[in-house]
Protein backbone atom coordinates (compact mmCIF):
# COMPACT_ATOMS: atom_id res chain seq x y z
CA UNK A 1 0.00 0.00 0.00
CA UNK A 2 2.85 2.41 0.88
CA UNK A 3 4.49 1.68 -2.46
CA UNK A 4 1.18 2.36 -4.29
CA UNK A 5 0.68 5.70 -2.57
CA UNK A 6 4.28 6.67 -3.28
CA UNK A 7 3.84 5.73 -6.93
CA UNK A 8 0.70 7.88 -7.21
CA UNK A 9 2.52 10.85 -5.71
CA UNK A 10 5.43 10.36 -8.15
CA UNK A 11 2.97 10.38 -11.06
CA UNK A 12 1.20 13.51 -9.79
CA UNK A 13 -2.10 11.66 -9.21
CA UNK A 14 -4.31 12.49 -6.21
CA UNK A 15 -4.93 9.50 -4.03
CA UNK A 16 -8.50 10.69 -3.37
CA UNK A 17 -10.67 13.62 -4.49
CA UNK A 18 -12.41 15.75 -1.88
CA UNK A 19 -16.19 15.29 -1.57
CA UNK A 20 -17.99 18.62 -1.24
CA UNK A 21 -21.02 18.63 1.03
CA UNK A 22 -23.59 21.16 -0.22
CA UNK A 23 -26.67 22.47 1.61
CA UNK A 24 -29.28 25.02 0.49
CA UNK A 25 -31.17 27.60 2.55
CA UNK A 26 -34.08 27.63 2.18
CA UNK A 27 -34.10 23.92 1.44
CA UNK A 28 -37.16 24.24 -0.83
CA UNK A 29 -37.23 27.78 -2.25
CA UNK A 30 -39.86 29.45 -4.37
CA UNK A 31 -39.28 31.16 -7.71
CA UNK A 32 -37.68 34.54 -7.07
CA UNK A 33 -36.43 33.64 -3.58
CA UNK A 34 -32.68 33.96 -3.06
CA UNK A 35 -30.98 30.67 -2.18
CA UNK A 36 -27.76 30.48 -0.17
CA UNK A 37 -25.62 27.43 -0.96
CA UNK A 38 -23.09 26.47 1.72
CA UNK A 39 -20.35 23.97 0.96
CA UNK A 40 -17.73 22.16 3.00
CA UNK A 41 -14.76 22.00 3.11
CA UNK A 42 -14.42 25.69 2.18
CA UNK A 43 -12.09 27.57 -0.15
CA UNK A 44 -9.22 28.16 2.26
CA UNK A 45 -5.93 28.81 0.46
CA UNK A 46 -4.44 30.52 -2.57
CA UNK A 47 -5.37 28.73 -5.79
CA UNK A 48 -8.59 27.27 -4.41
CA UNK A 49 -11.74 27.80 -6.51
CA UNK A 50 -15.14 26.11 -6.69
CA UNK A 51 -17.36 26.54 -9.75
CA UNK A 52 -21.12 26.02 -9.43
CA UNK A 53 -23.54 24.93 -12.16
CA UNK A 54 -26.98 25.76 -10.74
CA UNK A 55 -28.80 23.49 -13.18
CA UNK A 56 -30.84 26.26 -14.82
CA UNK A 57 -28.20 27.49 -17.26
CA UNK A 58 -26.54 29.87 -14.79
CA UNK A 59 -23.14 29.42 -13.18
CA UNK A 60 -21.09 31.03 -10.43
CA UNK A 61 -17.79 30.59 -8.64
CA UNK A 62 -16.12 31.08 -5.28
CA UNK A 63 -12.42 31.94 -5.55
CA UNK A 64 -9.77 32.42 -2.90
CA UNK A 65 -9.35 36.00 -1.70
CA UNK A 66 -7.60 37.48 1.32
CA UNK A 67 -10.98 37.98 2.99
CA UNK A 68 -11.47 34.21 3.09
CA UNK A 69 -8.77 33.95 5.77
CA UNK A 70 -10.80 36.23 8.04
CA UNK A 71 -13.84 33.93 8.08
CA UNK A 72 -12.30 30.48 8.23
CA UNK A 73 -12.57 30.08 4.47
CA UNK A 74 -15.12 31.12 1.85
CA UNK A 75 -17.98 28.65 1.71
CA UNK A 76 -21.16 30.32 0.41
CA UNK A 77 -22.65 31.41 -2.90
CA UNK A 78 -26.12 32.81 -3.65
CA UNK A 79 -28.46 32.27 -6.58
CA UNK A 80 -32.07 33.12 -7.45
CA UNK A 81 -34.10 30.72 -9.59
CA UNK A 82 -36.54 32.26 -12.07
CA UNK A 83 -38.24 28.99 -13.05
CA UNK A 84 -39.89 26.24 -11.05
CA UNK A 85 -38.71 22.63 -11.29
CA UNK A 86 -36.19 20.10 -10.11
CA UNK A 87 -32.56 21.14 -10.50
CA UNK A 88 -29.29 19.28 -9.99
CA UNK A 89 -26.66 21.63 -8.59
CA UNK A 90 -23.08 20.64 -9.41
CA UNK A 91 -19.89 22.01 -7.84
CA UNK A 92 -16.32 21.26 -8.83
CA UNK A 93 -12.85 22.74 -8.47
CA UNK A 94 -10.07 22.72 -5.89
CA UNK A 95 -10.10 23.08 -2.11
CA UNK A 96 -7.00 22.80 0.06
CA UNK A 97 -5.17 22.31 -3.22
CA UNK A 98 -7.02 19.09 -4.07
CA UNK A 99 -9.65 18.30 -6.70
CA UNK A 100 -13.13 18.53 -5.21
CA UNK A 101 -16.70 17.95 -6.39
CA UNK A 102 -20.20 17.61 -5.04
CA UNK A 103 -23.85 17.83 -5.99
CA UNK A 104 -27.29 18.62 -4.59
CA UNK A 105 -30.81 18.00 -5.88
CA UNK A 106 -33.05 21.05 -5.37
CA UNK A 107 -36.79 21.57 -5.92
CA UNK A 108 -38.00 25.11 -6.66
CA UNK A 109 -41.72 25.78 -6.23
CA UNK A 110 -43.70 28.19 -8.47
CA UNK A 111 -45.06 31.60 -7.48
CA UNK A 112 -47.85 33.67 -9.10
CA UNK A 113 -46.75 36.07 -11.86
CA UNK A 114 -47.17 39.68 -10.64
CA UNK A 115 -49.60 42.01 -12.41
CA UNK A 116 -47.05 44.83 -12.48
CA UNK A 117 -46.66 47.10 -15.51
CA UNK A 118 -43.33 48.48 -16.72
CA UNK A 119 -42.54 51.77 -18.41
CA UNK A 120 -39.49 50.69 -20.39
CA UNK A 121 -37.69 54.04 -20.26
CA UNK A 122 -38.10 57.54 -18.90
CA UNK A 123 -35.78 60.54 -18.86
CA UNK A 124 -34.96 63.92 -17.42
CA UNK A 125 -31.57 64.49 -19.02
CA UNK A 126 -29.57 66.45 -21.56
CA UNK A 127 -28.43 64.14 -24.34
CA UNK A 128 -26.12 64.02 -27.33
CA UNK A 129 -26.10 67.00 -29.72
CA UNK A 130 -27.92 69.34 -27.29
CA UNK A 131 -31.04 67.20 -26.95
CA UNK A 132 -33.13 67.72 -23.82
CA UNK A 133 -35.18 64.61 -22.94
CA UNK A 134 -38.30 64.54 -20.76
CA UNK A 135 -40.99 61.89 -20.14
CA UNK A 136 -44.72 62.27 -19.44
CA UNK A 137 -46.68 59.29 -18.08
CA UNK A 138 -50.47 58.89 -18.14
CA UNK A 139 -52.23 56.38 -15.87
CA UNK A 140 -55.92 55.53 -16.44
CA UNK A 141 -58.28 53.88 -13.94
CA UNK A 142 -60.47 51.57 -16.05
CA UNK A 143 -62.84 50.64 -13.20
CA UNK A 144 -65.94 52.23 -11.64
CA UNK A 145 -64.25 52.45 -8.23
CA UNK A 146 -61.32 54.47 -6.92
CA UNK A 147 -58.02 52.76 -7.65
CA UNK A 148 -54.65 52.80 -5.90
CA UNK A 149 -51.31 52.36 -7.61
CA UNK A 150 -47.61 52.84 -6.95
CA UNK A 151 -44.84 54.20 -9.14
CA UNK A 152 -41.48 52.60 -8.36
CA UNK A 153 -38.22 54.08 -9.65
CA UNK A 154 -35.86 51.59 -11.33
CA UNK A 155 -32.59 53.46 -11.55
CA UNK A 156 -30.25 52.98 -14.48
CA UNK A 157 -27.26 50.67 -14.26
CA UNK A 158 -27.94 49.05 -10.88
CA UNK A 159 -30.07 46.41 -9.20
CA UNK A 160 -33.37 47.71 -7.85
CA UNK A 161 -34.48 45.15 -5.27
CA UNK A 162 -35.65 47.94 -2.93
CA UNK A 163 -36.71 50.82 -5.15
CA UNK A 164 -38.15 54.15 -4.07
CA UNK A 165 -41.94 54.00 -4.57
CA UNK A 166 -44.68 56.62 -4.41
CA UNK A 167 -48.39 55.87 -3.89
CA UNK A 168 -51.37 57.46 -5.66
CA UNK A 169 -55.16 57.19 -5.61
CA UNK A 170 -57.13 57.73 -8.81
CA UNK A 171 -60.92 58.30 -8.94
CA UNK A 172 -63.08 56.00 -11.04
CA UNK A 173 -62.67 56.26 -14.83
CA UNK A 174 -60.17 59.10 -14.57
CA UNK A 175 -56.69 59.52 -16.02
CA UNK A 176 -53.74 61.30 -14.38
CA UNK A 177 -50.87 62.85 -16.32
CA UNK A 178 -47.51 62.72 -14.53
CA UNK A 179 -45.68 65.43 -16.45
CA UNK A 180 -41.88 65.13 -16.47
CA UNK A 181 -42.46 62.13 -14.23
CA UNK A 182 -38.90 61.41 -13.09
CA UNK A 183 -38.21 64.90 -11.79
CA UNK A 184 -41.73 65.81 -10.65
CA UNK A 185 -42.44 62.63 -8.67
CA UNK A 186 -38.93 61.55 -7.61
CA UNK A 187 -36.69 64.60 -8.02
CA UNK A 188 -34.57 62.32 -10.22
CA UNK A 189 -32.40 63.30 -13.18
CA UNK A 190 -30.92 61.02 -15.82
CA UNK A 191 -32.61 57.95 -17.28
CA UNK A 192 -34.62 55.26 -15.50
CA UNK A 193 -37.51 52.83 -15.91
CA UNK A 194 -40.69 52.73 -13.83
CA UNK A 195 -42.70 49.86 -12.36
CA UNK A 196 -46.43 50.47 -11.89
CA UNK A 197 -47.88 48.32 -9.13
CA UNK A 198 -51.67 47.90 -8.98
CA UNK A 199 -54.29 45.19 -8.65
CA UNK A 200 -54.77 43.14 -11.84
CA UNK A 201 -56.90 44.81 -14.50
CA UNK A 202 -57.28 48.11 -12.63
CA UNK A 203 -55.07 50.56 -14.56
CA UNK A 204 -53.63 51.12 -18.01
CA UNK A 205 -50.75 53.45 -18.79
CA UNK A 206 -48.89 55.05 -21.66
CA UNK A 207 -46.01 57.49 -22.04
CA UNK A 208 -44.18 59.89 -24.32
CA UNK A 209 -40.47 60.74 -24.17
CA UNK A 210 -39.65 63.93 -26.06
CA UNK A 211 -36.96 66.45 -26.86
CA UNK A 212 -38.08 69.65 -25.11
CA UNK A 213 -36.92 72.76 -26.96
CA UNK A 214 -37.87 76.43 -26.70
CA UNK A 215 -39.73 76.23 -30.01
CA UNK A 216 -41.69 73.12 -28.97
CA UNK A 217 -41.25 69.38 -28.55
CA UNK A 218 -40.93 66.29 -30.67
CA UNK A 219 -40.46 62.76 -29.42
CA UNK A 220 -41.42 59.13 -29.28
CA UNK A 221 -44.09 56.92 -27.82
CA UNK A 222 -42.66 54.55 -25.19
CA UNK A 223 -44.92 51.59 -24.30
CA UNK A 224 -45.96 50.42 -20.85
CA UNK A 225 -45.97 46.60 -20.85
CA UNK A 226 -46.99 43.72 -18.61
CA UNK A 227 -44.82 40.71 -17.79
CA UNK A 228 -46.73 38.56 -20.29
CA UNK A 229 -45.27 40.75 -23.05
CA UNK A 230 -41.64 40.25 -22.00
CA UNK A 231 -39.24 38.06 -23.98
CA UNK A 232 -38.88 34.67 -22.25
CA UNK A 233 -35.89 32.35 -21.99
CA UNK A 234 -35.96 30.10 -25.05
CA UNK A 235 -37.59 32.77 -27.23
CA UNK A 236 -35.91 35.00 -29.80
CA UNK A 237 -36.74 38.62 -30.51
CA UNK A 238 -35.58 41.07 -33.16
CA UNK A 239 -35.09 44.82 -33.36
CA UNK A 240 -35.26 45.97 -36.97
CA UNK A 241 -34.61 49.12 -39.02
CA UNK A 242 -31.57 50.21 -37.01
CA UNK A 243 -28.82 52.52 -38.22
CA UNK A 244 -25.68 54.08 -36.77
CA UNK A 245 -23.12 56.66 -37.86
CA UNK A 246 -20.37 57.22 -35.25
CA UNK A 247 -19.60 60.67 -36.69
CA UNK A 248 -22.85 62.00 -35.11
CA UNK A 249 -22.99 64.77 -37.72
CA UNK A 250 -25.03 62.85 -40.28
CA UNK A 251 -27.29 59.84 -40.45
CA UNK A 252 -28.62 58.23 -37.26
CA UNK A 253 -27.47 56.77 -33.95
CA UNK A 254 -29.02 53.76 -32.20
CA UNK A 255 -29.39 53.31 -28.44
CA UNK A 256 -30.49 50.00 -26.92
CA UNK A 257 -32.65 49.75 -23.80
CA UNK A 258 -32.80 46.61 -21.64
CA UNK A 259 -34.93 45.96 -18.55
CA UNK A 260 -34.84 42.91 -16.29
CA UNK A 261 -38.28 42.60 -14.59
CA UNK A 262 -37.26 39.64 -12.40
CA UNK A 263 -35.70 39.19 -8.93
CA UNK A 264 -32.70 37.29 -10.34
CA UNK A 265 -29.76 38.01 -12.62
CA UNK A 266 -30.64 37.83 -16.33
CA UNK A 267 -28.17 37.75 -19.22
CA UNK A 268 -29.22 39.39 -22.49
CA UNK A 269 -27.56 37.76 -25.51
CA UNK A 270 -27.23 40.20 -28.43
CA UNK A 271 -26.23 39.39 -32.00
CA UNK A 272 -25.73 42.23 -34.49
CA UNK A 273 -26.39 41.61 -38.21
CA UNK A 274 -26.09 43.79 -41.28
CA UNK A 275 -29.20 44.08 -43.40
CA UNK A 276 -27.68 41.54 -45.80
CA UNK A 277 -27.52 38.94 -42.98
CA UNK A 278 -23.77 39.18 -42.32
CA UNK A 279 -22.89 38.89 -38.61
CA UNK A 280 -21.21 42.05 -37.27
CA UNK A 281 -20.57 40.91 -33.71
CA UNK A 282 -22.00 39.54 -30.47
CA UNK A 283 -22.43 40.92 -26.97
CA UNK A 284 -23.62 39.52 -23.62
CA UNK A 285 -25.04 41.97 -21.07
CA UNK A 286 -25.72 40.89 -17.47
CA UNK A 287 -28.60 42.65 -15.73
CA UNK A 288 -28.98 42.63 -11.95
CA UNK A 289 -32.45 42.11 -10.40
CA UNK A 290 -34.88 44.75 -11.74
CA UNK A 291 -32.04 46.57 -13.49
CA UNK A 292 -32.65 49.00 -16.34
CA UNK A 293 -29.86 50.05 -18.64
CA UNK A 294 -29.57 51.91 -21.90
CA UNK A 295 -26.52 51.13 -24.03
CA UNK A 296 -26.00 54.37 -25.95
CA UNK A 297 -24.52 54.06 -29.45
CA UNK A 298 -24.69 50.31 -28.91
CA UNK A 299 -23.24 49.33 -32.29
CA UNK A 300 -19.91 50.90 -31.28
CA UNK A 301 -19.49 48.04 -28.79
CA UNK A 302 -18.89 45.63 -31.68
CA UNK A 303 -17.56 47.84 -34.52
CA UNK A 304 -16.25 51.35 -35.11
CA UNK A 305 -17.63 51.42 -38.66
CA UNK A 306 -20.89 53.12 -39.71
CA UNK A 307 -23.67 50.70 -40.67
CA UNK A 308 -26.64 52.21 -42.47
CA UNK A 309 -28.93 49.22 -41.99
CA UNK A 310 -28.59 46.59 -39.26
CA UNK A 311 -30.75 44.54 -36.92
CA UNK A 312 -30.38 42.93 -33.52
CA UNK A 313 -31.28 39.36 -32.50
CA UNK A 314 -32.08 39.21 -28.78
CA UNK A 315 -32.42 36.26 -26.39
CA UNK A 316 -32.04 35.78 -22.64
CA UNK A 317 -31.16 33.23 -19.98
CA UNK A 318 -31.17 31.41 -17.53
CA UNK A 319 -34.33 29.29 -17.36
CA UNK A 320 -37.30 31.43 -16.34
CA UNK A 321 -35.65 34.69 -17.45
CA UNK A 322 -37.76 37.58 -18.74
CA UNK A 323 -36.45 40.59 -20.62
CA UNK A 324 -37.80 43.81 -22.09
CA UNK A 325 -35.81 45.41 -24.92
CA UNK A 326 -36.23 48.35 -27.26
CA UNK A 327 -34.12 50.46 -29.60
CA UNK A 328 -34.21 54.23 -29.97
CA UNK A 329 -33.03 55.48 -33.36
CA UNK A 330 -32.17 59.18 -33.28
CA UNK A 331 -31.55 61.52 -36.22
CA UNK A 332 -28.08 62.97 -35.61
CA UNK A 333 -28.91 66.26 -37.30
CA UNK A 334 -32.28 67.06 -35.73
CA UNK A 335 -32.43 64.97 -32.54
CA UNK A 336 -35.72 63.43 -33.70
CA UNK A 337 -36.16 59.90 -32.32
CA UNK A 338 -38.30 56.84 -32.97
CA UNK A 339 -38.75 53.88 -30.66
CA UNK A 340 -38.33 50.43 -32.22
CA UNK A 341 -40.22 47.74 -30.26
CA UNK A 342 -38.93 44.19 -29.90
CA UNK A 343 -40.73 41.68 -32.11
CA UNK A 344 -40.82 38.04 -31.05
CA UNK A 345 -39.91 35.46 -33.67
CA UNK A 346 -42.83 32.99 -33.97
CA UNK A 347 -42.08 29.48 -32.77
CA UNK A 348 -41.24 27.13 -35.62
CA UNK A 349 -43.97 24.59 -36.29
Main attributes?
single chain; 349 residues; mainly beta; Immunoglobulin-like; Hypothetical Protein Tm1070, Chain: A; 9-stranded antiparallel beta sheet; 5-stranded mixed beta sheet; 2 helices; 4% helix; globular; disordered N terminus; PKD_dom
Overview of the molecule:
- It comes from Thermoanaerobaculum aquaticum.
- This is PKD domain-containing protein.
- Residues 20-108 form the PKD domain.
- Residues 1-17 form the signal peptide.
- Keywords: Signal.
- With 349 residues, this protein is mainly β.
- It folds into 2 domains: 13-108, Immunoglobulins (Immunoglobulin-like), CATH 2.60.40; 117-344, Sandwich (Hypothetical Protein Tm1070, Chain: A), CATH 2.60.290.11.
- Helices cover 4% and strands 55% of the residues.
- The chain contains 2 helices and 27 strands.
- The strands form 5 sheets. Strands 9, 10, 11, 12, 13, 14, 15, 16 and 17 form a 9-stranded antiparallel sheet that branches. A 5-stranded mixed sheet has the order 1-8-7-4-5, with no helix packed on it.
- The longest helix has 9 residues, at 2-10.
- Residues 1-15 have low confidence and may be disordered.
Amino acid sequence: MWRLALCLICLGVDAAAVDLTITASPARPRVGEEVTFTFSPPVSQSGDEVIFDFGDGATGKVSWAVECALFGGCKQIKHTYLAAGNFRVLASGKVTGQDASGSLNLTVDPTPVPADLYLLAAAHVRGTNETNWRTDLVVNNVTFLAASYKLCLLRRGTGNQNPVCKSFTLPARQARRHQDVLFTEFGSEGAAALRIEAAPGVVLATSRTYNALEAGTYGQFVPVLGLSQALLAGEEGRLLQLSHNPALTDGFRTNLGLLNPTPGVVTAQLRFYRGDGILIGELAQDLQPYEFTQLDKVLERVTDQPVEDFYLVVSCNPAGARLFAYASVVDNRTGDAILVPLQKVPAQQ
